Amino acid sequence: METLKHKILRAAALSAAAVIASASLAGCGKQIEPEPEVTTPAITTVTEATTVPTTVTEATTEPPPVEPDPLEKYLEYYEQNNDFVGWIRIDGITHSNGDPWIDYPVVQCDDNSFYIDHDFDKDKSSSGAIYADYAVPITGLDMADNVTLYGHSMKNGTFFRHLLDYETSSTKTINKAYIINFDTRWEEAQYVIVSCFQTGIYDWQDDLPLFEYFKCRNFDTEADYNYFYENIMLRNFYTTEVDCEYGDQFITLSTCEYDIGDDSRFVVVARKLREGEDPSVYAGTYEHNSKRHRPSKYYSNK
């Protein structure tokens, strides 16, 4: 039986040319659909005069959607910095006093470089800020299928350093910290963790084609979604009972780590809870996944 790893290798070989041609538009290897064939309508010759009664149809126009009011509790942050788009918090990973390590405002600007070395107040800082991928919409009316949030892994434990707590064969952390709170300025929301994985950022770090998770922003087709989901599950540190389907929304948290000798990434993906879904049903269901794929460079460094 063909394994997922072989499927990915075979699919990459068959579609390499198409991906190169469409990369600037497609990100996730999405194929550009051909233009529909134009059919010239048949010409009807009228041989007998006829009178056609005129039917007046009243035009109806759907009112444009109205953006909800921003949440009052975040107004001061937006006034402080108009790049503010939301807040990220993980309650299950805490200081000794019980406060969460990850509890930060999220900003977004027109590139992915400014907040690498600028803080929330836009002052120069090596810690930077937690920032959302510039290419995804985050508004009261529109949000991408998958929003990537970036943050540094600071040695003092701040920002996204404690995402690395999930990088272990123990299931203690994941089973107490499987819920991520990510609010936008307009909505409070919770997400349940689907996958935690390590990945390289260079082709030579792995024997599989590079998985550019950060380009998987919108799943315009089910094939786009399947590419994303199969890749995050192939690399997942844990098995989980959390189900996902085409049409779900995700957030992806990304930080640096150096476990394969050079710059690499540790990534946590979570699915937005559906309306009425009880997240407590997933408590204690995460187990170690001994079959996960890690970059081949990881093993050569051991």
Short synopsis of the structure:
By secondary structure, the protein is α+β, with helices and mostly antiparallel strands. The chain has five helices and ten strands, in the order ααββββαββαββββα.
Write up this protein.
The chain is 17% helix and 19% strand. By secondary structure, the chain is of the alpha+beta class. It is globular and about 65 Å long. The model is unreliable at 1-5 and 7-50 (pLDDT under 50).
What are the defining features of this structure?
17% helix, 10 strands, Sortase, Chain: A, 302 residues, globular, single chain, eight-stranded mixed beta barrel, two-stranded antiparallel ribbon, 5 helices, alpha+beta
SSE diagram, text form:
Elements: H1 4-26, H2 75-80, E1 84-89, E2 103-107, E3 130-132, E4 146-150, H3 172-176, E5 179-184, E6 190-200, H4 222-234, E7 238-239, E8 250-257, E9 264-272, E10 287-288, H5 296-300
Parallel strand pairs: 2-3, 4-8
Antiparallel strand pairs: 1-2, 1-5, 3-4, 5-6, 6-9, 7-10, 8-9
Task: Kindly identify the CATH topology.
Answer: Sortase, Chain: A
**The CATH C-level class name:** Mainly Beta
Arithmetic mean of pLDDT: 84
Q: Treating each run of at least 4 consecutive H or I residues as one helix, how many helices?
A: 5
Strand order of the largest sheet: 1-2-3-4-8-9-6-5
Number of domains: 1
Structural class by sheet pairing and helices: alpha+beta
Q: Residue ranges: pLDDT <50 for 5 or more in a row?
A: 1-5, 7-50
Number of strands: 10
Based on the structure given, which CATH architecture is correct?
Beta Barrel
Query: H/E element string?
Result: HHEEEEHEEHEEEEH
